Amino acid sequence: MKIAVVGATGLVGTKMLEVLEERNFPVSELIPVASEKSVGKEIRFKGKSYKVHSMNDAIAAKPQIALFSAGGGTSTEWAPKFAQAGITVIDNSSAWRMDPGKKLVVPEVNASVLTASDKIIANPNCSTIQMVVVLQPLHKKYTIKRVVVSTYQSVTGTGVKAVNQLMNERKDGHSAEMAYKYKIDLNVIPQIDVFLDNGYTKEEMKMVNETKKIMGDNSIALTATTVRIPVMGGHSESVNIEFENDFDVAEIKKILSQSSGIVVQDDPQNQVYPMPMNAHNKDEVFVGRIRRDESQANTLNLWIVSDNLRKGAATNAVQIAEYLLKNNLV
Question: Cα 327 vs. chain centroid, distance in angstroms?
């Protein structure tokens, strides 16, 4: 299969190439695509060198699938041009997520909505992906009424500039290159993306709106607070879930441990629980600190961690491509 990776030199694009190689996706020809200034440079994939292409050259090469990770503006302009040429686009930006005509997909949750006519498929926000993987099997069993989530998100979610800021501050106490308004080392910033008129950030409202769309249920009430912390390796989430029906904690653990893409790490006596340092470079969603909320009926607390560049972005996109291939949808 001929595959294009748009944004191949960026943080997520690089991860997409890694994941394609690791999962042994059947790539017969790779077409790496990046900005004009990167055209002609070379990248390595499966021991071979590939020249970086321009957008127009990539379209002319007619890949079956294009994995996009080049930002919303690029996706808005170029994804329809790829789609018009018959190429299936799996887009990692926020450009198409809430478009009512486009599918928003996490394979473990709603891959079955995909058809051969879907030429632009949206990859959800990283913090939403890891949460809905855990919410879906519980919703199916107990019916979720309300979710309260607070996130603790890695600097890698912002990009290379933020990683450089953190590492420079850690080394020298300051950074000439600032991805954030404030210092991030030894600090916590309770803002991800811009503030909206309702006082929430765009990231917080993405979690609210995307969760309802992916799970196909507008009745789920959800409120979020998203926070940037000075870590790498993955995003963490403290999630409080109120159900319509009562539950048994042992059964919750059993359901989650038997669900695709989830690893339960829940042994408080031995201080075993998910942490970003252990989720780094892994594709699974890790869940622990599973306990009843003793302040309210039918309510559960848990802790979710996942590598935001992998399951939160690159791996989810590749899994969508795998599903399309397996079901002859491309």
Answer: 23
